[in-house]
Hints:
The protein is mostly beta strands. It is built from one helix and seven strands. It has one domain.
Amino acid sequence: MSISRYFGILLLGCIILASAASAESFCSRVETGSSMWLSVGSITTQMGGRFISASADEGIELFNNVLVTEYAPGIPSQGSVSAFIRGRIMEDGKMVEFEDSTSIMGNISSFAKSMSYSSKPSYDLF
């Protein structure tokens, strides 16, 4: 598959949104995405998310793995790569916000970013 096809696929599926509503009707949100602009490169990405059960109230899982390596042994990829994850969630009555991003530009021998989020319900045992 040509590099230009990878760009098309990555642009169309670059961001996965996962939302889960809490008991207080607050809408939690977690986003992850990546972008690459390479003139020469070797790219591997994996993205996915799932509801742990039939309802968003039961929890979600989300992941995004990005890997850029040398185009060929001794020939680095050339261009820019960035990846991020951010979220604002309500868990156990507390607001939690997080954000992480990484980017690189130029000759790239190795870029690896693995991001994930998992929300599982907690039930009172009483």
